[in-house]
Structure formats: structure tokens, C-alpha cells
Design brief:
GO terms for molecular function: hydrolase activity; metal ion binding; nucleic acid binding. Helices cover 24% and strands 18% of the residues. It is an alpha/beta fold.
């Protein structure tokens, strides 16, 4: 039996040991490390799932210790230079201008190519890389081989930098980083980057599934461990934040027939276009007329499985890859494992550059250090979000960028307060008029205009309480904000949907509905009629659509008639206030999505909320066109839909779903397609899927305004690499 004094002695010893442990931990961080330097380490081509091969124990330890993302979504195209520069600027490649590893600028009359003298000129590099942001705010930076760091961007270099020299060993690179992070406080860089060209180099030669790549994984893990152990030896483990990531993943070459030889489809290619080949292939027709574009796109349209052809302005909005003069007119998109050449074979067994939604392009992300949370696995995220995170960690204000400020704040132990949405008064409601309706019954001059009032019109006359009930049901997370859009928005309430109607555009800007079960509404003959809640000055007329017939465009109901709850109100979806101009092509594709897939999701996943509306992005810059210059009716460039479900089963209504269980996917379907790619409906939906934030950017709307910042940001930035399952 232990004596009391022995127990007391044991407790004292344990307390001293614990205090000593705390002192050791505190002693690991010298007093002049009040602010924590950030090291950014890139392992080129380290696919997210390489970590699961059991070959990288040092990296796995870091991932288990700190913040580990299931994957980091690279930017399109998934090439080295565009993505490395995106990481340090927060800009999409179309915005910073490094649109590929090799490209031509028609104003410079010059070609950018890796390693060339031209690539070292600052005129190619747009945006503000973080090393310039650091310098501009009175701090120091250091880079060891980062794309752009050896270029005078805006006349500036990092404080410390090394010209690219592939012969410098990885060990020497790490040792230099350790020297930088150990400098006296007035010389020490706040932000440091380090680049290793493996395992990508071996993956190209031998393929991601090769022994050679596995060997490189083991080697780069040794290098990561060298850095970590070096920090530990210097007593800096608790003083320095470390991010280890990759720019993209990699795909194994298809076992056979993996090279698409353009000359097989376009024998006179050399006469017709300039070509950039490889995974991310582009064509620049020498004749920039429609006929010139057709000469190179028609032979490739539906030519073989795994090949898709786009004019740059027709690329899916989610790519944000249309708004730069350096992007060639025609872009070829291929499945993983395929590549494009003029007429020759490729020896490489590994490729990247594909659509960033392909899982083989997923990139590594691990963050560890005193400012990162511990033992946390986070959802996937887009690499444009990193610049803002790094600026926060270094204590500087970010330059304008394409990321969302605070989107990765959940990575941090002590994040700054979240940004707040701007306050906005709700739009007014267009009320059912009192008195004689006769003058309003035919103001839109439509074939279905009434000559006298009918009973169904009373459904438009909702009381204040009924309007509030409709908003609570169909807008459960708030009325979408329209910001600075000069839309002159007014609300039109119905029992089965609520519409935000633009009086300036004379069409709905959005309509929102919650559905709990399959509805039995049946389409009525398309006899459009006037909406008596509007005024003649704000109502669209049916004759105004007549000039659009030559474009195969007609008035189309935004609120789908098939989702009407009351069969006796079959005329309501054909009020002119619900009409948008839609082509026969889009009507067909939209029917596949809204008429076929949505009912399947409803049956499988339970109650849904839908927000649908037009997109006006006719210059394909991913931002809304100037509403003040639009005609009436203006033909939208696209239609969007945001679909929200609840991940918790068994709910009878979507508004009962806990905010943390909401899940949203979005789609932006184009009005027309210059090239037909013969995609089945599900494949087409995946191609033109989007993040909710993509819809927000291109429309100027803000969704889920009543949610708290974390839940709203999680929803709008969520990436779905594929559409929701349509069956069990």
C-alpha cells in the first residue's frame, strides 16, 4: 500500500514534469518569433491519393497532425505554370494571363514558353503575386524556384530568390530554406516558397502507377522530413507554419489508342490553323471567320469517344477560361489518359492538363504549424482560395483576386472575424390591383390574353400572411441579394413559387420553389397572357419576341409548368412575367435536366429547393453584362439552376433541414453551342455543372443570405466533381 507522502511526491513529480514539458514546448519558439513565418512547399504532380500508398510516412504524419484536405482542386487547365501562379495570386489563369505552359500573345506578337527569355519578361505575368504583396506591405519574402519568382513583375522580385537551376539538389534547396527561416528577425522572410519538380517528372515518363513514381514518392518524403527535422533541430517546430501541396495530379496513359492525331480528321490542318498539342490542345484558325472556325471544328465534332471541342466562349463557365486574348479560339478537351498530336505518337505514360473535375487531377494539401488547427480533415477546395489564406497567416491585406475572403478560415486555430454580407432591403412586392382589371388584361398583347376576368386570376391575389408563408417555404434561406444590379426588382408571389421580376429587363431574374413530392401539373397549350400585377411600362409584350423566331428563340416558362401544384392553375406558368427567351437547343437540354433529372433526385434524395434564372454573359467574361445596355427582350447567354437538398433523410420539407446538412449543386446551361459534342444528358449536365459561387459571379446574385458565414460559404464553394446520383 502506497504511503501518503509517496503519493504526494508522485503528484509533485508529475506536475513538475508537466511544467517542464510546457517549458520545453515554449522554449522551442525563441522570443523573436512572435510572428510565424509561412513556408509553402510544392511537390509537382503529387496526386491527392498518393498519400494513401503508404510510401510517405513523413507526409502522412504531417497530414494526421495538422489540416489535411481530401483534395485540393486545381484550376483549369491543370498545368504546372498556370496553377503555381494561381496559388500565389488567387487568380484564375484567364485573369493572371499564364493560360498554359506555352501560348502566343497576339498583341505582343510573341510566344511564352517555359525557360525562354520571353517568359522572364514581366509583361506576361498579371496580378500581384504574394511576394509582391509582402514587399508592398513592408515585409520580406523568399522563393526557391517558384514560377514567376525570377521575373520582374511590376518591377519587383522576392526579397530573396534563386534563378531556376534544375541541377541544384533537393537537399540543398531545403537547407537554404532552413537558413532563410533562421535569419535575424529584421532579415527574416515572412513568406517562403520551395518547389520540387517531383514526382511529376517521373510520372510523365513512366506513368502514375509505376515503380519509378513510387520511388520518387519515397524520395520527396525524405526531403519533406529533412525540412521538418531541420526545423525541429533549430527549435522552430512551434514557430513556423508549413503548407505542403501540389499543383495538380496525374493520369495514366490509356493502354491503347491514346493519341488523337489531328491530321487524321483534318488533313489540311497546317493550312487551316496554328496548333498547340498535348493534353491541353488548342487550335487558332488562320481564318477567324465562322467558316474558318467550322473548318477545324466540324471534322472533330463527335469524331471519337473522349474528345470534346469548344469555342473558347462556349467552354463551361466553371472553367473561367474564356476572357483572355491569349486563349486560342478553339479548345480541345479530352478524357484522362488521352492526348492530342498532329500526326505522331507520344512516349509519355503519364499526363495532366485535363478538366479539373477529373479525380486524377486532384492535388495534395497539408497544413501544419502553430496557426493551423490540429488533426482536422477538411473538405476539398479550389486552389484560388489559398492566396487569401496565406495573406491572413502572414498578416497582410490581399490584393484583389478571384478567391473568397475568409473561405478557409476554418483551417486556422484563431481565425479573424468572418466578413459580413452587405445589407440590402428586400425588393417591393407587386400587388394584385384593386378595381377594374380590364385595361390590364391585354397589355402584353399575347394570344392568351383574357377578355374578361376568370377565377384563376384570384390565385395572384395573396394576402400579406400568404406572401410571408410563400417566402418562408420557397425562400427558406432568404431572398437572393441582387447587389448593385440595376434590375429594378419586384417580387411576384404564388403559392407554389416566388419570382424576382426585373422591371428593367421585363423578365424574371430568378424564380424559387421548394418541392416535396412529384407534382401532377400538366403543361397547358402555350397561350401566354398578361400579368395584371405589372404595369404596361414594365411588362414584356409577346410581339417583341417575334424577331427572335429567326434565331430559333421563343418565350419559355422559367417556372416549370410541370411543377404547378394546382392543376386548375395551369395558366399561371404562362403569364408573360414568367417568360424568358430560350432557344430550341437549350429548351431540349433544359428539359433533360429539370424535367427528367430533378424528379429523379427528388425521389432519391427527398425535398428540394430550386432557384432558376437567366444569365447575361454574352461576352463570356464570367461577369454579368451591363443591364443598362441590354434590350428587351434580351436573349440570355445561359440559364442557371441552383438545387439544394438535405443530407439528413426522412424530412418532409427542405426548410426543416439543419444548415450544416444542406448540400447544393448548380448548373449553367448555354443558350447555344457552336459545336455539337454528342453528350448524353448526364454527361452534358456534368460538363455544365458549376459551384454556386460560379452562378453568383456570373449573375451578380447572392444566394443563402440568411445563413451564417461558415455554412453559406461551405455551400456556395462546394465542389461536386460529378452530379448527384440518379439511382441507388
Amino acid at each position: 500500500m502506497a504511503r501518503p507522502w509517496q503519493f504526494i511526491t508522485l503528484v509533485v513529480v508529475m506536475m513538475v514534469a508537466m511544467m517542464a514539458g510546457e517549458m520545453v514546448t515554449q522554449a522551442q519558439c525563441p522570443p523573436d518569433y512572435d510572428t510565424h513565418p509561412l513556408i509553402l512547399m510544392s511537390l509537382d504532380g503529387f496526386r491527392a491519393d498518393y498519400l494513401d500508398r503508404g510510401l510517405t510516412p513523413a507526409l502522412k504524419t504531417l497530414a494526421d497532425k495538422g489540416v489535411h484536405a481530401t483534395y485540393m482542386n486545381p484550376s483549369y487547365p491543370t498545368q504546372t505554370f498556370p496553377n503555381h501562379y494561381t496559388i500565389v495570386t488567387g487568380l484564375n489563369p484567364e485573369s493572371h494571363g499564364i493560360i498554359a505552359n506555352k501560348f502566343y500573345d497576339p498583341e505582343f506578337y510573341a510566344t511564352f514558353e517555359l525557360g525562354s527569355d520571353e517568359s522572364l519578361k514581366g509583361r506576361w505575368w498579371g496580378g500581384e503575386p504574394i511576394w509582391n504583396t509582402v514587399t508592398n506591405q513592408g515585409k520580406k519574402s523568399a522563393t526557391f524556384f517558384w514560377p514567376g519568382s525570377d521575373v520582374p513583375i511590376d518591377g519587383k522580385y522576392p526579397t530573396y530568390w534563386v534563378p531556376y537551376n534544375w541541377t541544384i539538389s533537393f537537399e540543398d534547396r531545403v537547407d537554404q530554406v532552413l537558413e532563410w527561416v533562421s535569419l535575424p528577425v529584421d532579415e527574416r522572410p515572412a513568406w517562403i516558397s520551395l518547389y520540387l519538380n517531383q514526382p511529376d517528372h517521373e510520372a510523365h515518363s513512366y506513368g502514375p502507377n509505376s515503380v519509378e513514381v513510387n520511388n520518387e514518392l519515397e524520395y520527396v518524403d525524405i526531403i519533406v522530413d529533412r525540412l521538418v527535422q531541420g526545423l525541429e533541430v533549430k527549435g522552430l517546430t512551434e514557430c513556423v507554419n508549413l503548407i505542403v501541396l501540389a499543383d495538380h495530379g496525374g493520369a495514366q496513359a490509356a493502354p491503347q489508342d491514346n493519341v488523337i492525331k489531328l491530321i487524321d480528321y483534318i488533313p489540311d490542318l497546317f493550312d487551316l490553323a496554328y496548333s498547340y498539342v498535348g493534353v491541353f490542345a488548342r487550335l487558332d484558325p488562320k481564318d477567324d471567320s465562322q467558316a474558318g472556325e467550322e473548318a477545324v471544328t466540324t471534322p472533330l465534332s463527335c469524331a471519337r469517344e473522349g474528345l470534346r471541342v469548344f469555342l473558347r466562349e462556349d467552354l463551361p463557365t466553371r472553367h473561367h477560361f474564356s476572357n483572355n486574348r491569349r486563349i486560342e479560339d478553339v479548345v480541345l478537351d479530352v478524357d484522362p489518359g488521352l492526348t492530342v498530336s498532329i500526326s505522331y505518337d507520344f512516349d509519355d505514360l503519364g499526363f495532366h492538363g485535363y478538366d479539373n473535375y477529373f479525380a486524377s487531377m486532384d492535388a495534395l494539401f497539408v497544413g501544419v504549424g502553430p496557426d493551423f488547427r490540429q488533426q482536422v480533415v477538411v473538405d476539398d477546395f479550389h486552389n484560388i482560395e489559398l492566396y487569401n489564406l496565406m495573406c491572413t497567416m502572414v498578416g497582410i491585406e490581399p490584393a484583389p483576386n478571384n478567391g473568397t475572403l475568409g473561405s478557409l478560415r476554418h483551417f486556422l486555430r484563431n481565425p479573424p472575424p468572418p466578413p459580413s454580407l452587405p445589407q440590402e432591403d428586400p425588393p417591393p412586392t407587386s400587388l394584385f390591383p384593386a378595381g377594374d382589371l380590364t385595361p390590364l388584361l391585354n397589355m402584353s398583347l399575347c394570344s392568351g390574353d383574357l377578355t374578361t376576368t376568370e377565377d384563376w386570376l384570384s390565385s395572384l391575389n395573396l394576402t400579406q400572411t400568404q406572401q410571408e408563408e410563400a417566402e418562408g417555404r420557397h425562400l427558406p434561406w432568404g431572398i437572393p441579394l441582387s447587389g448593385s444590379l440595376p434590375a429594378s426588382l419586384t417580387l411576384l408571389h404564388h403559392t407554389d413559387h416566388v419570382t424576382g421580376y426585373s422591371e428593367s429587363l421585363k423578365m424574371p431574374l430568378w424564380t424559387s420553389l421548394s418541392i416535396e413530392s412529384l407534382r401532377l401539373g400538366s403543361p397547358a397549350p402555350q397561350q401566354w397572357s398578361s400579368d395584371v400585377r405589372l404595369q404596361p411600362s414594365t411588362a414584356q409584350t409577346c410581339p417583341s419576341y417575334l424577331p427572335l423566331q429567326s434565331l430559333n428563340v421563343s418565350m419559355f416558362p422559367l417556372f416549370p409548368p410541370a411543377y404547378s401544384e394546382d392543376p386548375s392553375l395551369e395558366r399561371v406558368p404562362y403569364l408573360a412575367s414568367n417568360g424568358v427567351p430560350v432557344s430550341t437547343y437549350l429548351e431540349s437540354r433544359w428539359g433533360q435536366l429539370v424535367g427528367q433529372m430533378v424528379p429523379q433526385w427528388l425521389q432519391l434524395h427527398g425535398p428540394l429547393n430550386l432557384v432558376l434564372g437567366p444569365v447575361f454573359d454574352n461576352n463570356a467574361d464570367s461577369f454579368p453584362d451591363n443591364f443598362t445596355t441590354l434590350g428587351t427582350p434580351e436573349v440570355p447567354s445561359d440559364l442557371f439552376i441552383v438545387i439544394t437538398r438535405c443530407l439528413d433523410p426522412g424530412l418532409t420539407s427542405i426548410d426543416l433541414c439543419p444548415f450544416t446538412s444542406l448540400d447544393s449543386q448548380a448548373f449553367i446551361f448555354p443558350q447555344t453551342q457552336f459545336v455539337t459534342n454528342c453528350l448524353a444528358s448526364e454527361r452534358y449536365a456534368r460538363e455544365y455543372s458549376a459551384k454556386v459561387s460560379d452562378v453568383e459571379i456570373v449573375t451578380g446574385l447572392t444566394f443563402f443570405p440568411d445563413l451564417d458565414y461558415s455554412n453559406r460559404t461551405s455551400l456556395v464553394l462546394r465542389i461536386h466533381q460529378d452530379i448527384w446520383p440518379l439511382s441507388l
